[in-house]
Please model this.
Amino acid sequence: GDSVTQMEGPVTLSEEAFLTINCTYTATGYPSLFWYVQYPGEGLQLLLKATKADDKGSNKGFEATYRKETTSFHLEKGSVQVSDSAVYFCALSDPGNAGKSTFGDGTTLTVKP
Amino acid sequence: EPEVTQTPSHQVTQMGQEVILRCVPISNHLYFYWYRQILGQKVEFLVSFYNNEISEKSEIFDDQFSVERPDGSNFTLKIRSTKLEDSAMYFCASRERSGGSPLHFGNGTRLTVT
Model:
């Protein structure tokens, strides 16, 4: 079945540091890939997505590139802010599977001033 | 921007009692889901619902669970006889179409079973 493996956390960085959160996946077919972010007390929100190989999703300074050859979708940001502190989830959605999304375990990011 | 709304935000119930968690998905969305999250981490799929029937369900979604879309707007999750291990945050989500469109999540219902 489909699975998503995400870099274990928690991750603690200083403000303006570079962020990478690794994500790899296993899926049948050609999934769409997503990063969601969850702030305390809230539901998950879409951060960015990519629907085919070599697509780059970007939003709020975050980027991730759909790498089919390495089955990866690593999240990066060049300069993190305190307000980026949240839990980040990598997810895939298989078009042939009723659109069900499979999530990684989540990575907690804390950014210190 | 349209959003998914869930009620109540927090539900406390005794073991063995029935609970109904309610959701109003975004109005033009076609696919509906329930997920749960334990201890603020892993997001677990429970069930997907399309065209007024269950599309897929996980092993977690046993005979104690059921879903309904009774009136074309609400989407409910019922747990018939709650267990301590059902304590979790339950999220409703919807998407406009399958596959490449993202999930839109509600803010969740925190279920506490005592």
About this structure: The two ends of chain A are 41 Å apart (CA to CA). Chain A has a mean pLDDT of 93.
